[in-house]
From TrEMBL:
It comes from Carbonactinospora thermoautotrophica. Transmembrane segments: none annotated. InterPro entries: CHAP_dom, Papain-like_cys_pep_sf. This is Putative choline binding protein. It holds the Pfam family CHAP. Residues 49-70, 120-140 are annotated as: Disordered. Residues 137-273 form the Peptidase C51 domain.
C-alpha cells in the first residue's frame, strides 16, 4: 500500500521516489527481456526478482503471514512491524482494511506465505508483481492425505468425498484452495459438487466444455450417473484426438475410495479451469 503523501511525506524525498521509479522501470525491462528469451529457448519463464516491502500493520501491530491469500487460511507466522519482506507475485482476493485504506491485493512472499497488501508498505496502491502462476505440478495417483480419516479436512470439506480429493489436487496445482476462498473481492463457497460450476463463474474462473490437464471435471446433479449432490474429478490427461479424458476421483463406485477412469469428453457437464495453465 501507499502511505498518504500528507501524513508520510517526510519519509521519502522526490529524488528518492524518482530513483525508485527509474529502477522499477529498468527491472521491468530486464524481466520482460529475460522472459522473452526463455520462451524462445523453450524454457519455462521464471518469476521476476522480488519486490521489496515493509510490514506496516494497523496501529503498528505487524502482519500475519498465512498459508493462502485470505483469512480463511491458517496463520503460519506473525511478522513484526517494520520487517522487510520480498514479494514474488500477487493475486486479488479478500479485501483487507489497513492503516491507509482497503485493498484486495495479497502478496506472496519468497517463503511461500501470504500477507495482505494493506499491511505492507510498497510505495504504491497497485500490484508490485504480476498474478501468481500455478505450481506447474500435474500430480497423479492416490496420494490423498485423508484416505484413512473421517471428519473435516483443512479445506473445510468432508474427508473421503469427491470434493475433498479435488480440493487436495487444486492445492497441489494452484498452490492454495479453500471451500470459502475469495477472489477479486468476492467470497465464494464451493459446497456440494453440484454447485461448483456456479461458484466458479461467480469467482471469475473459466468454465467450458474443453478439458485440459489439471482442470476440474464437474457433473451436475443427475448427469451421467451423478447423485443429487453432483460430482467432481481431476483431469489427469486428454487423449490425442480430444475425444477421451482420463480423470481421478474419490467416492465414485467405491465409497470414500480412489478411482481412475477414461471416459468420453462429453460425459461430465463441463470443466472448471481454476489453476493458471489449465
Amino acid at each position: 500500500m501507499f502511505r498518504s503523501a500528507v501524513r508520510k511525506a517526510f519519509e521519502i524525498t522526490r529524488a528518492e521516489w524518482l530513483g525508485r521509479a527509474v529502477r522499477r522501470v529498468a527491472a521491468v525491462v530486464v524481466t520482460a527481456t529475460f522472459a522473452a528469451t526463455a520462451i524462445l529457448a523453450g524454457a519455462q519463464p521464471t518469476l521476476a526478482a522480488p519486490a521489496k516491502g515493509q510490514v506496516d500493520g494497523p496501529s503498528s501491530s505487524g502482519a500475519q503471514a498465512r498459508r493462502g491469500p485470505g483469512t480463511v487460511y491458517k496463520v503460519a507466522k506473525r511478522l513484526p512491524e517494520g520487517r522487510g519482506v520480498n514479494i514474488v507475485c500477487t493475486t486479488s482476493s479478500q479485501p483487507v482494511r489497513g492503516t491507509y485504506g482497503t485493498s484486495t491485493i495479497w502478496n506472496r512472499l519468497d517463503n511461500g506465505r501470504w500477507v495482505p497488501d494493506a499491511n505492507v508498505y510498497t510505495g504504491t496502491n497497485e500490484r508490485t508483481r504480476p498474478e501468481c502462476p500455478g505450481t506447474g505440478r500435474r500430480p497423479s495417483g492416490d496420494d490423498y492425505p485423508y484416505s484413512r480419516s473421517y471428519g473435516i479436512d483443512r479445506w473445510a470439506m468432508y474427508t473421503g468425498e469427491c470434493t475433498s480429493f479435488v480440493a487436495w489436487r487444486m492445492e497441489q496445482v494452484n498452490g492454495y484452495f479453500h471451500n470459502h476462498m475469495w477472489r477479486h473481492g468476492k467470497k465464494g463457497h464451493w459446497g456440494n459438487a453440484a454447485h461448483w460450476n456456479d461458484n466458479a463463474k461467480k469467482l471469475g474462473y473459466r468454465v467450458d466444455r474443453t478439458p485440459r490437464m489439471g482442470a476440474i471435471a464437474y457433473w451436475e446433479a443427475g448427469k451421467s450417473g451423478a447423485s443429487r449432490y453432483g460430482h467432481v474429478g481431476y483431469v489427469v490427461s486428454v487423449s490425442s484426438d480430444g475425444k477421451k479424458v482420463t480423470i481421478e476421483e474419490y467416492n465414485w463406485g467405491k465409497r470414500h475410495g480412489y478411482g481412475k477412469r477414461t471416459i468420453p469428453v462429453g460425459n461430465p457437464s463441463g470443466y472448471i479451469h481454476l489453476a493458471p495453465g489449465t
